[in-house]
Amino acid sequence: EGELGSSRNKGKETFGKISTPSPRTGKEGRQDNGEVTDKDDHLYFWFPLLAGLSELSFDPRPEIRQSALQILFETLRNHGHLFSLPLWERVFESVLFPIFDYVRHAIDPSGSSSQVSEVETDGELDQDAWLYETCTLALQLVVDLFINFYNTVNPLLKKVLMLLVSFIKRPHQSLAGIGIAAFVRLMSNAGELFSDEKWLEVVLSLKDAANATLPNFSFLDGGDFVTGNER
C-alpha cells in the first residue's frame, strides 16, 4: 500500500507540474502535426487515467489487474501516435516505470529466500507467482510499445535499457530471467532500427550487466587456491 501511495503521489507531482494550456492551442489540443503537446488540456485527462491503470495493474484481484494492464497498454497503443516526445517521457517516468519499482520492492531480491522459505505460506507463494506473471507481461508490453513508436521514443532507449539491465543485475534468478527475455525481445525486433550510436548504448548496457553479474574470480590470484598438481 505504501508503494502504491508513493506512486500515486509521484503521479500527482508530475501532474501538478503541467502548465496550463496555451490560448494558442488549437481546439483539438494538438500541434500542427497532430501530436498532443504537454501543454494541452488533454494532459489533465491522460495522466489520472494512465496513472490509475498503472496502480491497478498490481491489484491482488486477478480480474482487476489483468483488465487494468490490458486497458493501459491498449490505450497507449491506440493513442500513442498522437503523443509528443515530452509526453512519452512523462508516461514512461510516471506511469510505466513505477510498475516495476513496485515489483522490485514487493519481491525480496536480497537472496534471503532460503531463510524465509520454511515459513512462507501458500498465499505468499501465490502472490510471488502473480507478481512474476504481471511483471513479465508488463515488461514485454513496454518493449513492444517502445518498438511500435520507435521513431518518436528512440531518445528514451537508454532509459529502457537501464530498466532491463536493472532486472538482469538482480540476484533474484526469476527477475534476472525476466530482464534477459525482455532484452532479447528488444534486440530481435528493434535491432535493425538502431543507429551506430544506439548500438553503442546497447553494447555499453550489456557490458554493465556482464560486469555486475560475472562471478568473482579474484581468489584465483591469491595463495589460497592450490591446484591438484601442486598438492
UniProtKB/TrEMBL annotation:
| Residue ranges annotated for the Mon2 C-terminal domain, each copy included | 45-107
Q: Which InterPro entries match?
A: ARM-type_fold, Mon2_C
Residue ranges, compositional bias (Basic and acidic residues):
25-36
The record's Gene Ontology cellular component field reads: cytosol; trans-Golgi network
Q: Where in this protein does the record put region Disordered?
A: 1-36
Query: Sorted alphabetically, which Pfam families does this protein's record hold?
Result: Mon2_C
- PANTHER family (alphabetical): BREFELDIN A-INHIBITED GUANINE NUCLEOTIDE-EXCHANGE PROTEIN (PTHR10663:SF381), GUANYL-NUCLEOTIDE EXCHANGE FACTOR (PTHR10663)
Q: What is this protein called?
A: Brefeldin A-inhibited guanine nucleotide-exchange protein 2-like
